[in-house]
Structures are given as C-alpha cells and as structure tokens.
Write a structure and sequence with these properties.
The chain is built from 13 helices and twelve strands. It is an alpha/beta fold. It has one domain: TIM Barrel (Alpha-Beta Barrel), CATH 3.20.20. The strands form three sheets. It has an eight-stranded parallel beta sheet with strand order 11-10-9-8-5-4-3-12. Helix 3 crosses helix 4, helix 3 runs parallel beside helix 12 and helix 10 runs antiparallel to helix 13. The protein is globular, with a radius of gyration of 19 Å. The chain binds NADP nicotinamide-adenine-dinucleotide phosphate. The site of NADP nicotinamide-adenine-dinucleotide phosphate has 29 residues, from helix 1, strand 12 and helix 12.
C-alpha cells in the first residue's frame, strides 16, 4: 500500500490506518465486539499493508490497548502504534472521562499504555482532547521528555483547533493532528487542513465512514443502538438528508464497481492535506472491503457530483 510521511517525524504511514475504538468499547457504545475477530481484523490489516493502528486508553478502559498488544506481539516491527493520553478513566459508570494533560499524569498514563500494549515504545503519542486547566507548555515538556526517554517517537494532537495547535508548536514539534473528517462531517476542510498543510503537520482524520453511515447499510427503518442512537448525524432530518447523500453516492460508486464505503474512503484519502484516514473495522471482512478504498482515483466530474451531493443538491446529480 502507498505510504505517506507523518509530518517530519521520519515515520511513513500507510494511506489508510486502522481504528480500534469499537474493538475495545463497551456494549453500550458499539454493541458486542468479539476479541478474536478484533485480533483477526488487525492481522488482516497488517497483511494488507496497513501499518498504523490507532487506539487509546479510554477505548474500553484499557481493553482496546490490551487487544492491540496481544495482536501485535511478534509483529511489533510491522506496526506504527498510535495511542493517546489525556482522558482519565471515570470513577463510576455515570461519570464522563476527566481531561488531564498534567506532566505526572502523562508519564503515568504512558507507562500504563506501554504495559497494556506489551511494548517499550509508542510510535505516535497523541493528546486526545485539549485540557483547559493545564498550560500547554507543561504538557509539551512532558511529551518532549518521553521522546528523550525513547518511550515515544512522535507527538500528535487530537480534537485541537488551529489556535491551540499553534500554541503547542511554540514548545515542541507537533507531527500530526487527528480531527473528525468525512463526507458527512467536512468542516475540517475549511481551516484545519490548510493550516496543517502549511505547517507540515500530518492529518489522520477519524470517523471517515461517518461511524458506518457512509457504508450504505442504513435506511430509515434501521434500528439504531449505542453511539449511533445518540449521534446527530443519525437523528431526524439530518439522518434523512444523509441517507439521500448515500443514495447518490451508491450510483457513483457503482460506476467504479466499488461500494459506498470504498468511495467514502477514497474521497478522504485523496482530499488535499489528508495523510491517512483512520478507518474503524470490527472484523476481517470489513478490513478487506475498506482496503479496496485505496489504489484508484475518483474522476473529476464525479468529485464535482460528490461536492454537490454534500451541499444537499441531490437532484443536480
Ligand atoms: N480522536 C478522537 O477523538 C476519535 C474519535 C472517534 C474515532 N477515533 C478513531 O478513529 C477510528 C475510526 O472512527 P470510527 O470508528 O468512529 O468510525 P468510522 O471509521 O467512520 O466507522 C467505523 C465503523 O463502521 C462500521 N464499518 C466499518 N467498515 C465497514 C464496512 N466495510 N461495511 C460495513 N460497516 C463497516 C463498523 O461498525 P459496525 O460493524 O458496528 O457497523 C466500524 O466500527 C476509531 O476507531 C478511533 O481509532 C478517534
């Protein structure tokens, strides 16, 4: 698979990455996920040339990292391992995770991740969400120390806007950003993609399939559970509008003998400024389909049609 540079870190990442949120999440979030299938999905991804695997301590409260650690043991050198810090486990099931990017906490979290991932280094360590209570200078000093200690190789941010990224860059290198980005959530294209491009920051968009919406498997009668039942893109008039977009995408995908998921992935892979969309997949069959989203190009007239669909101009296509 084509590879692309992760900023100026010296690390090369595959044109798509594998996301591990659902694989470690609770039933209330992503429904039942089988650990054996998760491990098989990781092996399938590595066999297909995907090298970046993205996880986080908060995904399944350590479970996602443990599955990744188990899956990659014996194959560590094939993997660009990306995990995160800054969201502390809630003390009870009705509390939200607490944001914390204080130096002692980052050091502690990193040690726990290394243990769960069964490794002695993390390739890309990302701040999951900004912490308004910790000066960014302190956070960046802690991350730079981890680089000096050879515990991490590159620093990334996730869910940060341009101003906050600029502030962080004052105190050390930022190699990548992880923002939401897909045909149903295209706002990142406005400011963040050009900003990252101008500053040599790799962009690893998350939820490129709109949490499954852009696979074409949902309709108005679908029973929505877990995370989707609470997501505005799956609710009310927005859901109906999104389904109309997906119908239009199906026609375009058919011209290439591709699925809607493959079209949505290809669109994100080739969007200017994007480095490697992080595609979530629960089982090997999904990985196989999603890998078919790279290695071909959507022609210009179809890109224009997709643009119109995204603007809501369904008839114009
Ligand atoms: N930094 C952050 O704050 C943040 C936030 C969100 C996500 N992320 C990262 O980005 C990754 C991807 O995002 P995401 O999981 O939210 O959404 P996504 O990639 O848009 O959608 C993934 C989900 O769609 C379904 N799916 C995937 N491939 C499919 C296929 N070929 N056919 C049918 N269904 C398919 C699967 O769920 P079902 O089988 O249940 O349908 C899968 O879990 C995450 O795993 C995580 O690593 C990061």
């Amino acid at each position: 698979m084509e590879t692309r540079p992760l900023g100026d870190s010296g690390i090369e990442v595959s044109a798509i990455s594998l996301g591990k949120w659902a694989m470690g999440a609770t039933v209330e979030t992503w429904g039942h996920v089988d650990d054996r299938e998760s491990i098989a999905a990781i092996h399938q991804a590595l066999d297909a040339g995907i090298n970046l695997i993205d996880t986080a301590p908060i995904y399944g409260l350590g479970h996602s990292e443990e599955i990744v650690g188990k899956a990659i043991s014996g194959r560590r050198d094939e993997v660009i391992l990306a995990t995160k810090c800054g969201l502390l486990f809630p003390k009870s099931s009705n509390e939200l995770p607490q944001r914390c990017l204080k130096p002692e906490s980052i050091q502690r979290e990193c040690e726990s991740s290394l243990r769960r991932l069964r490794t002695d280094y993390i390739d890309l360590y990302q701040c999951h969400w900004p912490d308004p209570d910790t000066p960014i200078r302190e956070t960046m000093e802690a991350l730079r120390l981890l680089i000096e200690q050879d515990k991490i190789r590159a620093i990334g941010l996730s869910n940060y806007g341009c101003e906050k990224i600029a502030a962080a860059r004052e105190f050390g290198p930022i190699h990548s950003l992880q923002p939401p980005f897909s045909m149903v959530q295209p706002r990142t294209a406005e400011e963040i993609l050009p900003f990252c491009h101008d500053h040599g920051i790799a962009v690893l968009p998350y939820s490129p399939l709109g949490k499954g919406l852009l696979t074409g498997k949902f309709d108005e009668n679908s029973e929505l559970t877990g995370i989707r039942a609470r997501d505005p893109e799956f609710l009310g008039s927005r859901f109906k509008a999104n389904l109309r977009v997906v119908d239009g995408l199906k026609e375009i995908a058919m011209n290439y003998d591709k699925t809607v998921a493959q079209l949505a992935i290809n669109w994100a892979v080739h969007y200017p400024g994007v480095t490697s969309p992080i595609v979530g997949a629960k089982r090997p069959s999904q990985v196989i389909e999603n890998v078919g989203g790279v290695g071909w190009t959507i022609e210009e007239p179809d890109m224009a049609k997709i643009g119109k669909l995204m603007e809501g101009d369904v008839d114009g296509c």
